């Protein structure tokens, strides 16, 4: 009997690929979250760590609600614990960059995306925002807009995709893209919660859909002008991690989470300037694509945090990707590096889609590269240094 | 020691209860066990002026539904407020990867019972890259045909049968390695040994009412875990729109519960009922005094075009229905056309009350549960009102 009971327990635990945290009482938590906080405000400072992919966060109390970014003080943290500095000289600075409403603690509390500076006030290796902002300011008058399509996979805490049989695979791809039904869509709750949280926070989330691989999803952020693209996408990623944490599952931005005949995860980047969006803009689009075609390796290096190594597992030429070694472009062609949407081909204006960026790319690096090549007409393997 | 023994016995009973609950839980998806309390906290967050519009379309199979969402800056008041969109048809069995963009054209809008007001569900037509209708976009032609007979005010009511399956593909509530007792006690039944999965039915009904879908009834069906809902009366193109919307809502409700809705016309072979989509039809003339004559005329025309309708009544040109229309289990035989008052073994049944009042409507019992309602309703209009004959649909110049 006792043996039977422990077998029972074993079976139940095996089914639970969700974290222990997720089974803490949410009713108990709600009681505490309903407590009023007076005039005090909680500001959660968020930054990118030494990996260039990971996000970190810590909170401080403020005495009143910050109305804009200038109301938020600088802060610092221990960089030796985030792969960012040595223990002997570990203080690093957090410089508030973008502020959002906090969908977890709710008003008047804030999420504060920050830049990281080293002890000598120079940007850290993974602070790609500083340079991106400079570049964006150089081309402000061209009004560059971006939209990024963030793909990701939901994993259980066991590292296996959520909803997949624990010791195997689901049926092959085909029925899952935009699917509905318990046998097609795995983990929609996360997607719904994330969408609402982003809307509340003020993140420019413009859509979601289920992706080709089961437990894979996509959300789109945009249209964002200039530096906002990176800010909003990083904020949306943080919110996703936090939502998944609440549900007890994990969001992965790995570009090829399951090898073999399973889709990878990208971050297709849509781009346009004022000129491209106006009548006859197709010419500006084609000019840009031509420039991109001459600088393929430079962009591949900018499009994932490992200089192209991550994308090498994903950009095979199959599963709606282009081959990492070749540059190609085409109207409505999902096997190309650059896709021109059919409606753009017809209207002769609009935008184009760079399908190369990896799901774990740094949007600051991606958007900066597009500006450098297409608008600043840079060439060659190295970014240009500008005096400003 | 007696207390200890009793205590251990209770612990074991609890273990067994948990074990059985665990076993039943195994037939539901992992998604269903994600915390709904957590989800509710997020769904309660205000969304400002932004509106989520979920675009829904029929994929290349002609049976499957797909959906994706976009944010709008304000609440759409009518279908014209909704922009066209597009999607990757190579991932839905609808196009090649090299030329995969397909268009989504909003056709019918409903309130969203999952995300609630002001959010919307938007049923769409699909166009190919060259703006021609996709192969499984049967709405386009149906709408043209309906417009031709508008003045006859055609009404439809469709009785959608379906089976609830676990994620293991076995009917929900059935013993995992066997069968329930034979059919008999389940139709319109009540009780845990008769009705399997009523929660889904109740949730679906309310969701449809909220959404504005014309759901007019539900009942438990003859096979356990099989249910039926009825949509109608709907005029013209609305029948197809409302039935597809009701099907989408059913899939989405089942997803939330962690089970699967199947419209397979014969999910379990042998002495178990199939699933159909009986279609009730009438025109203004049929509904008025003496309308029985028009009913009988229509039935006569249908009798001369049995094969054409069988082709239109499931997505595989009759192959799916071949497993279901055996002449047993309250179906007619697929090879023969028949009609009769109050006869559930006939292709067409005239309700007894209609036989008595000499007016009303009639029921075509041939359509399969996975039929396309646009195809079914169009076929009825073509044969009964446009008096078409033969194996091919007539082409009209408009």
TrEMBL record, chain A:
Its cofactor is Mg(2+); Mn(2+). The keyword ATP-binding applies. It is found in: Cytoplasm; Mitochondrion. SMART domains: Gln-synt_C. One of its GO terms (molecular function) is glutamine synthetase activity. GO terms for cellular component: mitochondrion. It catalyses: L-glutamate + NH4(+) + ATP = L-glutamine + ADP + phosphate + H(+). Its EC number is 6.3.1.2. GO terms for biological process: glutamine biosynthetic process. Residues 39-121 form the GS beta-grasp domain. The keyword Acetylation does not apply. Residues 128-388 form the GS catalytic domain. Keywords: ATP-binding, Cytoplasm, Ligase, Magnesium, Manganese, Metal-binding, Mitochondrion, Nucleotide-binding. Belongs to the glutamine synthetase family. This is Glutamine synthetase. It comes from Oncorhynchus tshawytscha. The gene is LOC112249886.
From TrEMBL, chain B:
Its main location: cytoplasm. Residues 49-131 form the GS beta-grasp domain. The gene is GLUL. SUPFAM superfamilies: Glutamine synthetase, N-terminal domain, Glutamine synthetase/guanido kinase. Belongs to the glutamine synthetase family. This is Glutamine synthetase. GO terms for cellular component: mitochondrion. Keywords: ATP-binding, Cytoplasm, Ligase, Magnesium, Manganese, Metal-binding, Mitochondrion, Nucleotide-binding.
């Amino acid at each position: 009997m006792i043996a039977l009971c422990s077998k029972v327990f074993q079976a139940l635990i095996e089914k639970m690929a969700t974290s222990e945290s997720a089974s803490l009482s949410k009713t108990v938590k709600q009681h505490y979250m309903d407590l009023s906080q007076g005039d005090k405000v909680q500001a959660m400072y968020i930054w990118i760590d030494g990996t260039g992919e990971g996000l970190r966060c810590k909170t401080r109390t403020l005495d009143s609600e910050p109305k804009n970014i200038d109301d938020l003080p600088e802060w610092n943290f221990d960089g030796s614990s985030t792969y960012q500095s040595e223990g002997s000289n570990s203080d690093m600075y957090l410089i508030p960059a973008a502020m959002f409403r906090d969908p977890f603690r709710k008003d008047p509390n804030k999420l504060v995306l920050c830049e990281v500076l080293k002890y000598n006030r120079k940007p850290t290796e993974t602070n790609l925002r500083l340079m991106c902002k400079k570049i964006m300011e150089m081309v402000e008058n061209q009004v560059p807009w971006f939209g990024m399509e963030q793909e990701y996979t939901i994993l259980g805490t066991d590292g296996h995709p959520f909803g997949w049989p624990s010791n195997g695979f689901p049926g092959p791809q085909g029925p899952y893209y935009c699917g509905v039904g318990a046998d097609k869509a795995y983990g929609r709750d996360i997607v719904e919660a994330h969408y609402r949280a982003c809307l509340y926070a003020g993140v420019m989330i413009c859509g979601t859909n289920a992706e080709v691989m089961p437990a894979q999803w996509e959300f789109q952020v945009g249209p964002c002008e200039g530096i906002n693209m990176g800010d909003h996408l990083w904020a949306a990623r943080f919110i996703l991690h936090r939502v998944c944490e609440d549900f007890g599952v994990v969001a992965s931005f790995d570009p090829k989470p399951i090898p073999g005949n399973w889709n990878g995860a990208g971050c297709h980047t849509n781009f346009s300037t004022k000129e491209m969006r106006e009548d006859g803009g197709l010419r500006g689009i084609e000019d840009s694509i031509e420039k991109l075609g001459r600088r393929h390796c430079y962009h591949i290096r900018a499009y994932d945090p490992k200089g192209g190594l991550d994308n090498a597992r994903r950009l095979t030429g199959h599963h709606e990707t282009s081959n990492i070694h070749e540059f190609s472009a085409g109207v409505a062609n999902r096997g190309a590096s650059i896709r021109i949407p059919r409606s753009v081909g017809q209207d002769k204006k609009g935008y184009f889609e760079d399908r190369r960026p990896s799901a774990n790319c740094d949007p600051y690096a991606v958007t900066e590269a597009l500006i450098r090549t297409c608008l600043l007409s840079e060439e060659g393997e190295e970014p240009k240094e500008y005096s400003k």
